[in-house]
Amino acid sequence: MSPVAGEEHRAGITGAVERLVTGWALFGGLVLLAVIAVNLAAVIGAMVGRSFPGDFELTEMGVAVAVFAFLPYCQIRDANVTADIFTARASPRWLAAFKSLAALVAAGFAAILLWRMSAGMADQRDYGYATTILQLPIWYAFLPILVSLGLLAAAALVTLTDALRVLRGPRHG
What is d(CA 17, CA 24) in angstroms, rounded to the nearest whole number? Predict the structure, then answer.
């Protein structure tokens, strides 16, 4: 895996987290391709008079899994939406301070979501909730989402350590 322009390779645990997060995002991309294939099959099937039962259910679950799979990658690559207009003239130290705060918030939200969605998955499983047409247990979709949230928390900790390293570095403004 080659780094993005201007980035160095991470080593050790942070490098392992980065590789896991990147692989997980690729998995999310494959899920999204599967969703596209399901929708394509449904459209073509409708044109030839054949239905594709459960296409909405598979789309709903697949898109949710894919979106959550991309969150850790956006965090570790610093690709989240930001309001750069407010920080355009900020020094590298101020930017690192803002990134530290953002990473702490991301880690906190990931931990809270992991905690609450674990409980939600348990409820879905315990009550036997399933999709209407295919009768797929809904809690199945929670499993990769929980992995994504765990990876998001890990990615936030990696970006926090990166930002803190900049803050601790030499003072140049």
Answer: 10
* pLDDT beyond 70 at 6: no
One-character DSSP codes across the chain: -PPPTT-PPP-HHHHHHHHHHHHHHHHHHHHHHHHHHHHHHHHHHHHTT---TTHHHHHHHHHHHHHHHHHHHHHHTT-S---GGGTTT--HHHHHHHHHHHHHHHHHHHHHHHHHHHHHHHHHHHHT-B-TTT--BTHHHHHHHHHHHHHHHHHHHHHHHHHHHHHHS----
Task: Judge whether 121 and 142 are in contact, CB under 8 Å.
Answer: yes
For residue 80, count other CB atoms closer than 10 A to its CB: 11
Give 152: exposed, middle or buried? Use CB within 10 Å, 0-12, 13-18, 19+: buried
pLDDT digits (tens, 9 = 90+) for 23-46: 999 999 999 999 999 999 999 999
**Predicted TM-score of the model (pTM):** 0.88
The residues spanned by each domain of the chain are: 12-78+88-168
